[in-house]
Amino acid sequence: MKKKTIIIIHLVYWSRLLFSIIPLVSFQLKSSTSDLYTLSLLWSRFIFQLVPLFSFYVAYCFLFPTYFTRKKYLTFGALAVLTTLFTLLIGELFIVPFKREFGDILSSQDKHNAILYPLKLRLLNMMSMTISAIISGSLLKALILWFNERKIKETLEKKNLQTELALLRAQINPHFLFNTLNNIDILIEKSPAKASEYLKKLSDIMRFTIYDASAEKILLSQELEYISKYIDLQRIRSSASGFVKLEVTGDPGNLQIAPMLFIPFIENAFKHSTNKKQENAINIIIRIIGEEIYFSCNNVLDKIPGLEKTKGGAGLDIIKNRLTLIYPDHILHMEKTESKYIVSLSIKLNEN
């Protein structure tokens, strides 16, 4: 939803207070009632409509997006109750001094003024306004989040063909494919058995990319197998046994994951680590804990002219969009230093 639209919605909500005050001002100009009486009415409207706006924005900006959307309903409810109590306290802090100073005068002119209500009735009145504000703030935030998510989905659907093509090109980097075939060709004379093994791995990668990766979800074990074979093929080009290290812990079991989420970061690591004789140039760690997966990849950065100007390997922007859409609660952190590029990603695989 556009920011301009959101601002207009908020202005409409705020206008409730303005339109509740205008009739009172008009009434004062046309009548002979005292200024104090009109002031009390204005003050009453101010307290019982403006003060609950505090709870509206607490729910809108904090409670709903932080807790309700993450299914922490008990925490949301508890904090909503605390917000309501705090709002009631603020309201009383405004009312009590005014009532103490002018209560006697007002009671002689209008016994039905909300400021003069007994404490219990006054709190019930304020509580109903506050609860209404919390519900309104939560519903508005839910509407905006739903609209934004729908907009993202529509955008991705419109670009589906282009995205699929971009993914296919990104998944198998042409340079990687060319170099792998060239290295296998050299191995054919030196070690036919090893060449055949690598050729099979390349065939498996191509099959996975073209067929398996088109599915919405695949087994996590398939994704890990693909990553392992990809790294094995990259190792052909390095004379250092410890050029790249892959550590996988945990049992993937029957867990499923959206395909091709990690490989773009791994491709990018190989792209920027051009010194194939260096030890510990790339370190990849994948940990599976329950239904959560933690991925980290750090690599050295080679300072090669022109390399920084090229686009990120394997469509990193596309992967970010996919993560936002499929795993909205994911945590992605990318950090670049003088000599290192570090990526960490955590995903809850049971997200709907």
Automatic annotation (TrEMBL):
It comes from the Bacteria. One of its GO terms (cellular component) is membrane. The lineage of its organism: Bacteria, Pseudomonadati, Bacteroidota, Sphingobacteriia, Sphingobacteriales. This is Signal transduction histidine kinase internal region domain-containing protein. The chain crosses the membrane at residues 7-26, 46-64, 76-98, 126-147. Residues 164-238 form the Signal transduction histidine kinase internal region domain. It holds the Pfam family His_kinase. The keyword Plastid does not apply. GO terms for molecular function: phosphorelay sensor kinase activity. Keywords: Membrane, Transmembrane, Transmembrane helix. The keyword Transmembrane applies.
